[in-house]
Amino acid sequence: MSKKLRVWLVFLIFLNGYISLSFELIVLRQLSFWVGSSAVITSIIMGTFLGFMSLGYFLGESERIKNKRIKTILATSFIVISLFAFLASSFPLVMEYFSRMYMWGIRSSVAQTFIFSFLLLSIGPFLFGFNTTLLSRCLHRYNTNYTGNIMAWDTIGSVLGSLLTTLILMPFIGVNYTVMLIVLLAVFAAIVTRPRWWIVTLGVIILIPTMLVNSDYVQRHRFGILVNNANSTITVMRDDAGTRYLYMNGLPMSVYNSDTGSTTQYMDYLNEHFIYNMPNDYPRQILILGAGGFTAGIDDTYNNYTFVDIEHTLQDISEKYFLGESLGENKKFVVQDASQYLKNTTQQYDLILLDVYSNSYQIPEGFITAEFMQRVKSRVAPNGILVMNIIASQSFRDKYSQVFDNTFHTVFKSNTQRQVIGYANPYAENDVVNVLYVWYNRGDNDNIYTINKTPVIYDRYLK
Description:
The protein is an alpha/beta fold. It contains 16 helices and eleven strands.
């Protein structure tokens, strides 16, 4: 075996490791916006990935695989990997998958993840393991003590795939171009392994739709995608009435009509009942966790607003494509995780709006805990108000709605309000709606009225 061939085999092992980790991380990123990134979801994806990769390791040792056919098998394997990287990583295709799941009534995030994993995350990882074994067999023919080098280069590729994908590629060139890159690398690996016309043809057939579906032009004009980075995929749509819709990661976040000034129903309610009717004796401090389209207090130029969101492009996109104007001087945008912001700030706010619970199927688990709610509570000024907008069953038909309610009242024991927004039918099988949980920081009072002690005629006049 020539030195040049050994170098190419080692390079293919490195490339195999790089593509595998990059592919896995992109899938985790794309799926997180529909099913979240909890330990359960991550374990399903990683378990499927590693399980089928292990199966590939085993089957790659089969004696039925003739050494003279290994190049052809490897090239075919990389072509198939490129196909599944395209199918499982392209945001428009992933969005179509979840749309179908909801259409067919499959709404459990665990079920959606299992189905996705077995359909699209079985073949690719199997072939990653299969390729590693076949490449190892080739190198062992040269030197039976090459195991350490094989494992090292495979791991180095995985490490670089992990770091470059998350720290450089997705943040700076976008997820869509990162998808193009891993598909291109898989096709390249196939061609250098077996430079035949049919391999090149298959590679081109896969690359063309990959480039089209993931191009900025198609994503913007066909799907309205304006941002596609490591954190978010942002879309702005407009209907015939001039109403704009802001979507983040395929989920509706904000609605705004500049002619009528109307927003979403729950935001109109919040603006009318909690913001626009504030006393004007001095400017209040208002904190919005989950900036959305910056429609909270959109017409308020008096009070001071701090919008907190992890997506750094949100203000620029909202001003250019959603609001159509710049934020007022009384409004500032902080790019930070909501929990970290609350941890680091000493400011207390007269009104805090927590608007991070975007839907009932993708729950930010760190933000529904009693510990997080205690952190929010500590930042509400005396006589201040906290409002939490969630999507839940108004009649407590599911465990999430019940347990969230229990958690909320464990932290906020008194002076609370639960307001259902919009049409609500407690007898409907699906009564998931916007529900506002409100807490007034007026001080706790544990007294109750009993048949033995009912001083209600006096309590009405006491503050």
